[in-house]
User: Fold this.
Amino acid sequence: MTVINGYEQSDREQKLDILNLPSLEEQAKAIIPTGGFGYIVGGAEDNWTLRQNTKAFAHAQIVPKALSNIENPDLSTSIFGIPLKTPVMMAPAAAQGLAHSQGEKDTAKGVAAVGGLMSQSTYSSTSIADTQAAAPDAPQFFQLYMSKDWTFNESLLDEAKKAGAKAIILTVDATVDGYREADIINNFQFPIPMANLTKFSEGDGKGKGIGEIYASAAQKISEADVRRIAEYTDLPVIVKGIESPEDALRAIGAGAAGIYVSNHGGRELNGGPAAFDVLPAIAKAVNHQVPIIFDSGVRRGSHVFKALAAGADLVAFARPVIYGLALGGALGVQSVFEEIDHELAITMQLAGTQTIAAVKHAPLTHFNYED
Assistant:
């Protein structure tokens, strides 16, 4: 263990023997300090939307396809011309130093090892440059929590471009902090600085709760902000936190190069629908104008398959990756991606889909089953 400001960080570096990704949560709970674990695992209010995110995948079923004459499914795909060996990417997730001393640097290494796509948060424990340097040959996206201070936004965007970020993810569904009861119970305040916040006049985030940090972020975000970021960076801007067809079309009209369907893993608006349940209608409205990324509740290879079949181009997740990070560092992250890719390959074989393009055209059916 590494100790910083009294907070114990894992420094494990090992491959993991994973039965399934849901099993990692209890294992990680045993080594991540209570406050940090509560921040990572918790959702808003009573976690209803968080729970529905995973349950919603049962609302659609995969149609098996026999006599399909395939073997060794190919998981490779691409986005914005970037080749990827897996359609599963790392979702932007804050403060990964809560799980491991190397934080986002080890996450980036683990994602790069499987040929995947890394995205890092404005509120990351390590700087944009350090995260990129940890896996210099692998593609990364940068996620922006827009500040009220546009000069600060420009500084972050400049750093992201300099580090070689391939796209900007603009989060629009978290203009205030969701009511996270685990953080209140634990009186949680970040024990570790957030490297990208050092330019805030309010400081680097250490010793503050997430609500205090959000107070420095922009509460008013409009279509004009999407245009402004796209014009300033000349990079694709992906608008994250879209949960309706109307908002998807507004974002595209404002210049978004990608739509990111997500309810923030159930951490913001509790009582909203599961992200998977709104994905098909959004995909129909977008109609392939721009790529769609999806996250929230993904825990199985079959979930990835269903999200792709329902209209996503890439599927992201975070919590299981962070648990793998705590349990095994970069090698643990690699193990998590290898497990979900393994499950996805099995599902693709049994569904008669040789490629990710075929998965996107695979039929889903809908029967109502009781839990």
Remarks:
- The chain has a mean pLDDT of 95.
- Residues 319-350 form the longest helix (32 residues).
